[in-house]
Specification:
The structure is a single chain. The protein has 186 residues and is of the alpha+beta class. The chain folds into two domains: 38 residues, no CATH class; 141 residues, Alpha-Beta Complex (Nucleoside Triphosphate Pyrophosphohydrolase). It is built from three helices and eleven strands. It has a four-stranded mixed β-sheet, sandwiched between helices. The model has no long low-confidence stretch (mean pLDDT 88).
Length: 186
Amino acid sequence: MTRSGRIPAVADTPAEVLYAGRWLTLKQRGHWEFVERNNPQGAVIIIAVTPEDRVLFVEQFRVPIRQFTIEMPAGLIGDAGHDSDQDAAETARRELEEETGWSCGRLEPLHSGPSSAGMSTEMMHFVRALDLRRVGDGGGDETEDIVVHEVPRNEAGAWLRGMSAKGYSIDPKLFAGLWFLDHAGD
């Protein structure tokens, strides 16, 4: 809505497909260009804390930014090879174990919203993984090379700033995830 409370007319304009790739489609609506994921369900971010009160982070190289990143475990709902994933919970369970080697007894939905409202239609679903237990090494699937970090919860913010100082790209959503740890019931 605009400040006057009316939805702009361009919102009703059909989007023109500028390019359709395997995973992403570039579209234009009016003068606005944006990206749409070809899996309409979105993505999930898993906030997981071990029984020892350590937050699970993953490190991996991200080709688009040509940099190593620190992230929370995450994944696309209905990702390639996982078409049976129907929702954020199924994806969260699979990605948590695949990326970190931890499984969870239950999941708590925390928040859903756009990953980048001015650039993409992708919706992000934050979930909290509870009742964790180690079941493997993690590290991702055959296409990934993930390093798992278990960071004491009370040191997580400082650790992230330290990793940034070392040249890692820190996903800003991590700080939202840490906030949810302390304010999920608010």
